[in-house]
Design brief:
Largest sheet: 3 strands, antiparallel
Structural class: alpha+beta
Distance between the termini: 100 Å
Shape: elongated
Number of strands: 3
Strand order of the largest sheet: 1-2-3
């Protein structure tokens, strides 16, 4: 009977080792996938020779020339200049602030 118990223990141990092997393979696959994704991104940058990034810009409205100018804040370069839209030509008036000051 000891041989049967040894056999069962050996089978359990092999099964446990196979589970550990599968877990390790899955872990290495995940690590490889992360590096593969990084490689794909960098490869695309090298191939296209450009990169898209979000850059802060400021839209300046010139009511005298009726032009809207978009300027990059990191380099202070003009991205675009165009005619102002009808909505942009309407200047904002702060009537609510004036009324509150008159009441106070």
């Amino acid at each position: 009977m000891q041989a049967g118990e040894d056999l069962a223990n050996a089978i359990d141990e092999v099964s446990k080792l196979e589970d550990e092997k599968k877990a390790m393979n899955d872990e290495f696959k995940a690590k490889t996938a992360v590096h593969d994704a990084t490689i794909a991104v960098k490869q695309r940058l090298v191939r296209n020779k450009n990169e898209y990034r979000n850059v802060e810009c400021e839209l300046t409205l010139n009511y005298t020339t009726q032009k809207a100018t978009l300027v990059r804040l990191d380099t202070n370069t003009v991205v675009s200049e165009r005619d102002m839209t009808m909505e942009e030509k309407q200047m904002k008036m702060d009537f609510d602030d004036d009324q509150q000051e008159a009441v106070a």
